[in-house]
Design brief:
The complex is a heterodimer of chains A (787) and B (262). Chain A has 787 residues and is α+β, with helices and mostly antiparallel strands. In chain A, 28% of the residues lie in helices and 22% in strands. Among the domains of chain A are: 154 residues, Aldehyde oxidase/xanthine dehydrogenase, molybdopterin binding domain (Aldehyde Oxidoreductase, domain 4), CATH 3.30.365.10; 202 residues, 2-Layer Sandwich (Aldehyde Oxidoreductase, domain 4), CATH 3.30.365. In chain A, the strands form seven sheets. Chain A has a seven-stranded mixed beta sheet with strand order 3-5-1-12-9-10-11, with helices on both faces. In chain A, helix 9 runs parallel beside helix 18, helix 14 runs parallel beside helix 15 and helix 15 crosses helix 16. Chain A is globular and about 85 Å long. With 262 residues, chain B is of the alpha+beta class. Among the domains of chain B are: 50 residues, Uridine Diphospho-n-acetylenolpyruvylglucosamine Reductase, domain 2 (2-Layer Sandwich), CATH 3.30.43.10; 94 residues, CO dehydrogenase flavoprotein, C-terminal domain (Enolase-like, domain 1). Chain B is built from ten helices and twelve strands. In chain B, strand 4 and strand 5 form a beta hairpin. In chain B, 49% of the residues are buried. The chains are: A alpha+beta (787), B alpha+beta (262). The interface between A and B is medium-sized, with 24 and 18 residues.
């Protein structure tokens, strides 16, 4: 029987009432008295020297309050990078300055040159058109391999080259890996592109800066996944505002997918300008602007080699990846192709020798950073594609080849520095095979053939690392932040509870699932619990939401805080019942004395805490409010097995997904409905990457796919009805809920099975096609079939 | 958007008078292209002359020759609902864009814009329809004049489009994945006096008639009549969604499918 409340129940998402009825409070809904508007003049040139920016005409335009240029920010810090990678020679990465407004040079189409603040949005835009900008074009740096050639034009003149870092992992393993590949019975090699993606959260970014002259307090309302991180980065590194004078509020946020983790120039600008002008300053990003200013995702070019012995055991994996950083380092950009990618190259397999080389490269493109999955989709894609290719070359079943090489004993220490605590990859694969009716495939193939269509089946596994941790480890790896999470549980006098979490919900349903956890622990109704997040003024310092970390890390902090609450409440209950604390039991919101019929209700205890007439004041303080910070001992390791079945129209190359099945192991599950929804969303994004989303720059650095006319987002009829299952559960061993996280799995696990399925379809039809780069648009598939 | 004035005339004569007042005045049909263009500040008309209040150019009827006569201000949704005697036209209209587009966009607006990837130009050209304006009647073969160009004069408004109903017809649209405009769309119409094949989405010159296919189909209206026929890749649009060669290939595929489905 499904539970009707607490952990394991598919409670309806309480936040949807406001989201679906237009009653949400998004950043653009915030309008402050006396608010002015900013319009950014952005470069339409990918690379050039800024010879002159003449703002005189613009300054005289109606409604203009001030026109800002790079010169106004000469004394202000640049946008900081939050992660320093050390290269394979022990040297720190090259880290160029990232000014709020361009200084001296523009480096990508969309680079902000000037900002006009005016009384209305249209006036600001009108005036921006009156700014005269002289740019001398420089040669563009677009192709990563060309960018690293001797004599290549440099994106940043002060750096020695366009190479951010050349990273080797694990460098000490390189010799053994080379040797294993040399001695292998078979080596399969695959060169592939992990295509650049434009995040396209439903809500574009917005920032409203505010300043109180009376108190010297600054406030930033922003579309962020982590308001405390923005407060720290912007306050400490850019504007020099201490945290107690700076409040950052991220209210309802309409999707992030990583793109709203980072500290952006527009946030710093609005906060800075509000103080300069003593007026609130608002910026609302248009969709067109989002395409050229939100950090993009992926953009790797990789060569992977998989070595096998004569019995088809994997003996080594060697990869060489070029990772596009874009024109500047976005907040966490350096960590994505390294620590979130290299550490996952073992996948689900017990390959003994692994070496990962990553060259991060500056180009004249929009900066690239984490996007749903962040490094892990890139790792999964190359590994699961090369395994499929190896199976074909060796003439063995791709599922059996995977099974043969699965890690089966846990904990398992990989050769790439991480230790998987739990998992059961065969169980996920078994479940998947139950779901997909393999035995019926031949009939389905025949049916497709009768319609003139090709049919293929693709399978893959994935493993990911969520809840990035622990802080002392990530510090050694170059993180300039801790990666704990926090929660304050405030019990009110009549028993209702307000939980203030450092996690941030931007669509994930935290308000529902977090409440389920606390309700379950105390044994009260979920409706008695309210989850608050997103305001640095009333939540404890937290690191926010990304990397599928919130239930594993934020949820654990909340459990710790709730445990403290229960411990104190037991003392109060013992006093009220004149019993020993050791005899107090908590069940269904009632404290009782073991072996007696004496009990007091949750509400009686909470009331006593705030009306301490009969209260052990000599032992404990009044009130019932506790805070906990939780720093996990390890990553969590969700895993799964996915299968995709496609039809291909051989005349047009169009791919249709006929079915998609996902068997995931997320450990314990708090709300199965929400988890299914998270998987559905991830699958849509993964299918979007595999089939539709094509970010295309021309040689001049112009983004060709700069609107929905050319950038194809997945729509409802592009994706099938998914078959998802998360009944395989190997609970995480090191967090109190035994949870692993589910937010990114769908996006990580789905692209390889789609591509594997299309290649399978073409091969079954006799085409000698071993690989097609994503997205598998009709024209690319058709082109591949032409030989 | 830049600031502009808007006028909402209720007759064609008033609309024409307003358009003739200045070259900077511009007609607004359903606004499915013009409004996004204005939002991007790529157009700056002084006065927008909104045609949506002119009842005399709305609706679908049948004339004495059996032609389906569609007012220039008729929306795609109304075309789909009112053109039951011409199923291929209904299918085409009801597969343009999404419901919001179909409830605002008009046949006259689409034809006057002549987007090289729009559907209506293929239907009009393949049907040998007649475009009626406030000044004259223009045969389909004389109307389209390359990408975004038509025979219309400044200030000339499409008041009606008259479609002869073919014996058989079909429209095959292969969608560009992002915009879902026609990457290649082929409209085939078989009349007693011959077959017409019109192709949209493919050519740098906009919609065109594939005369070799028409000749082949005139003798034998079956897919096999098209065997071995192809259009040259030269002059086909080549972009990130497909090469000229791919589009040329799709023209043949979609034509065959249209004949099979007609």
């Amino acid at each position: 029987m499904p539970k009707d409340g607490g952990i394991g129940a598919s409670s309806k998402r309480r936040e949807d009432v406001r989201f679906l009825t237009g009653a949400g409070n998004y950043t653009d809904d915030i309008n402050l008295r006396g608010q002015a508007y900013v319009h950014f003049l952005r470069s339409d040139v990918a690379h050039g020297t800024l010879d002159n920016v003449d703002t005189s005409a613009a300054e005289g335009m109606p409604g203009v309050l001030k026109v800002f240029t790079g010169a106004d920010f000469a004394e202000v810090g640049g946008i900081p990078c939050g992660w320093q990678v050390t290269d394979r020679h022990g040297e720190p990465m090259q880290e160029p300055p990232h000014p709020v407004l361009a200084q001296g040079k523009v480096r990508h189409v969309g680079d902000p040159i000037a900002a006009v603040v005016a009384e209305t949005r249209e006036q600001a835009r009108d005036a921006a058109e009156a700014i005269e900008v002289d740019i001398s074009d420089l040669p563009t740096v677009m192709d990563m391999k060309d960018a690293l050639k001797d004599g290549a034009t440099k994106v940043h003149d002060d750096l020695t080259s366009n190479l951010c870092y050349d990273w080797g992992f694990v460098e000490e393993n390189k010799g053994a890996v080379d040797e294993a590949i040399k001695n292998a019975a078979h080596v399969t090699t695959l060169e592939l592109v992990n295509n650049r993606l434009v995040p396209n959260a439903m809500e574009p970014r917005v920032a409203v800066g505010d300043y109180s002259r009376g108190t010297d307090d600054s406030t930033l309302y922003t579309t962020s996944q982590n308001p405390h991180v923005i407060r720290l980065l912007m306050g400490a590194f850019v504007l020099g505002i201490p945290e107690h004078k700076l409040r950052v509020v991220a209210p309802d946020v309409g999707g992030g997918f990583g793109s709203k983790i980072y500290h952006y120039a527009e946030e710093a600008f609005c906060t800075f300008a509000a103080k300069k002008l003593n007026r609130p300053v608002k910026w609302t990003c248009s969709r067109s602007e989002a395409f050229i200013s939100d950090a993009h995702g992926r953009d790797h070019v990789t060569k992977i080699e998989l070595a096998l012995d004569a019995d088809n055991n994997f003996t080594a994996v060697r990869t060489e990846t070029y990772a596009n950083m874009g024109a500047y380092l976005s907040t966490f950009a350096p960590s994505i192709p390294t620590w979130l990618h290299g550490t996952l190259m073992a996948g689900n397999y017990k390959t003994p020798n692994i070496y990962v080389n990553v060259k991060a490269v500056f180009t004249n493109t929009v900066p690239v950073d984490a996007y749903r999955g962040a490094g892990r989709p890139e790792a999964t894609y190359q590994l699961e594609r090369v395994i499929d290719k190896a199976a074909r070359e060796l003439g063995v079943d791709p599922i059996e080849l995977r099974r043969q090489n699965f890690v089966t004993e846990f904990p398992y220490a990989t050769p790439v520095a991480v230790e998987y605590d739990t998992g059961d990859y065969n169980a996920c694969m078994d479940k998947l095979l139950e779901m997909i009716d393999m035995s019926g495939f031949d009939k389905r193939l025949a049916d497709s053939k009768a319609k003139g269509k090709l049919r293929g089946l693709g399978v893959n596994c994935y493993i990911e690392a969520c809840g990035i941790a622990p802080s002392n480890l990530v510090g050694q790896l170059g993180a300039r932040a801790g990666l704990y999470e926090s929660a304050t549980v405030r019990v009110n006098a009549t028993g209702g509870i307000t939980v203030m979490t450092g996690s941030h919900s931007h669509g994930q349903g935290h308000e529902t699932s977090f409440a389920q956890v606390v309700a379950d622990m105390i044994g009260i109704d979920e409706s008695m619990i309210e989850i608050e997040h997103g305001d640095t003024a009333n939540t404890p310092m937290g690191m926010g939401t990304y990397g599928s970390r919130s239930i594993a890390v934020g949820g654990s902090a909340m459990v710790k805080a709730t445990e403290k609450i229960i411990a104190k409440a037991r003392k109060i209950a013992a006093h009220l019942m004149e019993a020993s604390e050791a005899d107090i039991e908590l069940k269904d919101g009632q404290f009782s004395v073991a072996g007696t019929d004496k009990s007091v209700a949750w509400g009686d205890v909470t009331l006593a805490a705030y009306v301490p007439h009969n209260y052990p004041l000599e032992e404990i303080e009044p009130g019932l409010e506790e805070t906990a910070f939780y720093d996990p001992a390890n990553f969590t390791y969700p895993s799964g097995a996915y299968a995709c079945e496609v039809e291909v129209d051989p005349e047009t190359g169009k791919v249709t997904i006929e079915s998609f099945a996902a068997a995931d192991d997320f450990g314990n599950v708090i709300n199965p409905m929400i988890v299914s929804g998270q998987v559905h969303g991830g699958l849509a994004q993964g299918i979007g990457q595999a089939l539709l989303e094509q970010t295309s720059y021309d040689a001049d650095g112009q983004l060709l796919s700069a609107s929905y006319m050319d950038y194809a987002m997945p729509r409802a009829d592009d994706v099938p009805f998914y078959d998802v299952d998360h009944s395989c559960q190997t609970p995480c061993t090191h967090n109190p809920l035994g949870v692993k996280g589910c937010g990114e799995a769908g996006a990580i696990g789905s692209p390889p099975s789609v591509v594997n399925a299309v290649v399978d379809a073409l091969q079954r039809a006799g085409h000698d096609v071993t690989h097609i780069d994503m997205p598998l648009t009709p024209s690319r598939v058709w082109q591949a079939m032409q030989g | 958007m830049y600031a502009f004035e808007i006028e909402r005339p209720s007759t064609v004569a008033d609309a024409v008078a307003l358009l003739k007042q200045s070259d900077e005045n511009q007609a607004l049909g359903g606004g499915q292209t013009l409004i996004p263009t204005l939002k991007q500040r790529l157009a700056a008309p002084e006065v927008l002359v909104c045609l949506s209040g002119i009842d005399e150019i709305k609706g679908v009827c049948t004339d004495d020759d059996g032609r389906i006569c569609i007012g220039g201000g008729t929306t795609h949704g109304e075309v789909a609902a009112g053109s039951g005697a011409y199923p291929a036209l209904v299918w085409m209209a009801e597969n343009i864009g999404d419901p919001a587009v179909r409830n605002r966009g008009t046949i006259g607006g689409s034809l006057a814009n002549n987007d090289p990837s729009a559907c209506y130009p293929a239907a009009v050209l393949a049907s040998g329809a007649t475009v009626v304006t406030n000044e004259r009647e223009i045969a389909a073969d004389d109307f389209f004049d390359g990408m975004f160009a038509t025979a219309l004069n400044e200030g000339e408004i499409i008041t009606e489009v008259k479609f002869p109903v073919p014996e058989k017809a079909n429209y095959q649209k292969f969608e560009q994945p992002a915009s879902r405009f026609a990457l290649v769309g082929v409209f085939v119409a078989k009349f007693a006096d011959g077959v017409r094949v019109a192709v949209t989405g493919a050519s740098e010159e906009g919609v065109f008639r594939w005369t070799e296919a028409e000749e082949a189909l005139n003798g034998n209206f079956s897919a096999s009549a098209l065997d071995g026929l192809s259009v040259p890749a030269d002059g086909m649009i080549s972009d990130l969604h497909g090469s000229g060669a791919y589009r040329a290939h799709l023209v043949a595929v979609m034509t065959r499918r249209a004949v099979e489905a007609a």
